[in-house]
Write a structure and sequence with these properties.
The chain has 354 residues and is mostly helical. It is 79% helix and 3% strand. α1 runs parallel beside α2 and α2 packs antiparallel against α7.
Length: 354
């Protein structure tokens, strides 16, 4: 039987040619295990183990072809986006609302690297589902170039990456990396029309909440649009004070945090959505704090360094609130799972008795 395993190994090697050198130690280990256990486990397990060697070689060949295709498309995508990405990086550097963009691709790359061993155990098998996704990405690139719409140009890269992975690697591998790819959307600045449509209501909401909090504290206050009039000073809630910067950063942070720590989609969605009211209330608190300092001390104390530093304080406060919500979600999931397990066990015990 040992001779049979060696003969089978030679047949597999001759069939796959030059893969012998690349698979070397792994294949030899597999064949040795076949030879050492085949006498005890019989011909059926021998054939199953030999099939495992065949599958191993097929998987390695598929990944090797995929690496070649990946290098080819890296060259093509570099040629298509070599003028687009430098402008995106400049936006990250110049626009404080998107300074987190530097960290987004690094985090996505970390997530893929973290599960690389699991990905390598899957056999790439392309899917035609990726073809319409590729067409959508190409259409976005063309339309963005014609209309000079940077958002379409930049997001087309993410859609093309998703389409290429589906088309060449298949749905099983894509399912593993779907979140890291989708997370890349956080690195793309919103179109100006969307940004302004979100920022203006946030300004109004922040001013309204700050007025309500100041009135609750017994401070005489009058609001005119996004202008808050106090006894000795007036505060304007500008776009920078709308909270949209903290909102975008906290949404990205909560999405990453939920993916890493929560086991199910439902709790993930709850944590991400909770970042919206937390940010709104934290930003209103910042305006109230600024108003109190301006009212009781001097407006100069509420400007400059304090105004910038208070932004970090409020962001940390919002993060602590998210930490509390995350703990509550984990507790709820734990209790729910225990009750579900107890209920299933009770049903099984009842059926066993009856």
């Amino acid at each position: 039987m040992l001779q049979r395993s060696r003969s089978l190994g030679k047949q597999i090697m001759s069939r796959h040619g030059n893969d012998r050198a690349s698979l070397g130690g792994c294949l030899n280990s597999k064949l040795n295990r076949i030879g050492s256990h085949v006498d005890e486990e019989g011909p059926t397990n021998f054939n199953a183990a030999a099939g495992g060697v065949e599958e191993l070689i097929t998987r390695e060949q598929s990944w090797r072809r995929g690496n070649i295709v990946t290098l080819l498309f890296v060259v093509i995508l570099t040629g298509l986006y070599w003028q687009i990405f430098p402008a995106l990086i400049l936006d990250w550097w110049a626009d404080p609302n998107y300074s987190h963009g530097f960290l987004v691709p690094l985090f996505s790359a970390f997530l893929i690297w973290h599960q690389w061993d699991a990905l390598r155990r899957l056999t790439p098998s392309g899917s035609w589902v990726g073809l319409p996704v590729l067409f959508v990405g190409i259409a976005m690139l063309v339309l963005g170039d014609i209309a000079a719409e940077e958002f379409l140009l930049r997001t087309s890269f993410i859609v093309l990456i998703a389409g290429l992975m589906l088309f060449h690697l298949g749905t099983a591998i894509f399912g593993r990396v779907a979140f890291p790819i989708a997370f890349l959307f956080f690195m793309v600045p919103l179109p100006a029309i969307v940004f302004n449509a979100v920022a203006f209501p946030l300004q109004q909401l922040a001013a309204h909440n700050a007025e309500w909090m100041l009135d609750l504290l017994g401070i005489p206050v009058l609001r005119d649009g996004n202008i808050i009039h106090l006894k000795d000073v007036s505060l304007g809630v500008t776009e920078a004070c709308s909270g949209i910067r903290s909102l975008i950063s906290l949404l990205a942070l909560s999405a990453a945090w939920a993916y890493l720590t929560l086991p199910k989609v439902g709790p993930m969605v709850v944590l991400v959505i909770s970042a919206v009211p937390v940010t709104i209330m934290a930003n209103a608190g910042r305006i109230v704090l600024t108003g109190l300092i301006s009212q009781h001390f001097d407006v100069t104390y509420a400007q400059g360094f304090f105004h910038s530093f208070s932004g970090w304080i409020i962001f940390c406060f919002a993060f602590v609130c998210l930490l509390g919500i995350h703990g509550f979600i984990r507790l709820f999931c734990s209790v729910y799972d225990r009750r579900a397990t107890w209920g299933t066990g009770a049903v099984l015990r009842f059926r066993a008795r009856s």
